[in-house]
Design brief:
CATH topology: Methylamine Dehydrogenase, Chain H
CATH class: Mainly Beta
Radius of gyration: 18 Å
Number of helices: 0
Strand content: over 45%
Strand order of the largest sheet: 1-27-28-2
Distance between the termini: 24 Å
Number of domains: 1
Number of strands: 28
Length: 305
């Protein structure tokens, strides 16, 4: 499940298996409902912002395009033959990539779809520098793709278990979270394993890079771990969630936001591990510059002031 930081004012929050959604001001954690978009079979883990529109994907392999300002549905297109699981935006040139259960990646560039064949369901995507992006599959395969040529330029068999999240790191490195309870860091230049981070006791489902250069990981063991990954060292645990942590996002001021399946969003001071705010909401969050908070549910998308 994804958290998306669009701009500096708005958080968008989504989580699977949710029929409705709660939205609150990102700064005050309260607000007034502006409008609601009615939709069906939204895959809450796969949405993207391409100004001025939002794209939401469905379990039927279609993608709906919405105007954020008016709340109007614009059009839809077919992304893949199966359910859409993950999305990233923007790639170079404002492209959006979607991965799903039909063993392919679709890249949308406003007027056509480009397809990238994969050997199994795609669970994770992340944007990389120099016109590339990475994908991770249910069978533990990580691939690096050139967007323009649609060629796989590197392949890493990271594990025999599913890749749950990917994150680009400085120094041409890539972090990957697996459902074998580990986080692995790779060199993109050589495809070599740099380090493996052990400590979680269940699937690792979310990653975020903190402002101090440390790495945050969220897990189905209900915890968030902060890593000095250059030393393979866990420097702190953040405790408080009572169900699996599904998503992580770093705010512009450096605070860490976590979403979990306990119907709670927490805002953390990662310096001392203090939970600063607790919001009764479930899902993935996104900041937007017009002070609206948008949350994606299974049957509706709601916009709040």
């Amino acid at each position: 499940m994804n958290w998306v930081l669009v701009h500096d004012e708005l958080l968008v929050h989504c989580l699977p298996c949710l029929a409705t959604i709660i939205i609150s001001f990102a700064r005050e954690f309260e607000g007034q409902l502006k409008h609601t978009l009615r939709t069906l079979n939204v895959s809450q883990s796969a949405f993207a912002h391409v100004a001025p529109n939002f794209l939401t994907s469905s379990t039927r392999g279609t993608v709906d395009v919405w105007d954020v300002q008016t709340g109007n549905f614009l059009f839809k297109f077919k992304s893949c033959g199966g359910g859409v699981v993950c999305a990233i935006a923007p790639l170079d040139g404002g492209l959006v990539a979607f991965g799903g259960t039909d063993s392919k990646i679709s890249v949308w560039d406003n007027d056509k779809l480009l397809t990238f064949p994969v050997k199994s369901s795609v669970y994770a995507l992340c944007s990389l520098p120099r016109g590339k992006f990475a994908s991770g599959t249910e069978k533990g395969l990580i691939q690096v793709w050139d967007t323009n040529s649609r060629v796989c330029v590197a392949a890493i068999q990271g594990s025999n278990r599913g890749v749950e999240a990917l994150l680009a790191l400085p120094n041409d490195q890539l972090a990957s979270a697996f459902d074998d309870n580990t986080v692995r860091v790779w060199s993109l230049a050589t495809s070599a394993l740099v380090t493996t981070l052990h400590g979680h006791t269940a699937t690792v489902s979310a990653l975020a890079l903190l402002r101090d250069g440390n790495l945050a990981s969220g897990s189905w063991d209900f915890t968030i771990r902060i890593w000095d990954y250059s030393k393979s060292l866990c420097v702190r645990q953040l405790l408080g969630h009572t169900k699996p942590v599904a998503s992580l996002l770093v705010l512009p001021d450096g605070k860490l936001v976590s979403g979990a399946r306990d119907n709670c969003v927490r805002v953390w001071d990662v310096g001392d591990g203090t939970c600063l705010h607790k919001l009764p909401a479930t899902g993935g969050l996104c900041l937007h510059n017009n002070n609206e908070l948008v949350v994606f549910g299974k049957l509706e998308i709601t916009f709040w002031w």
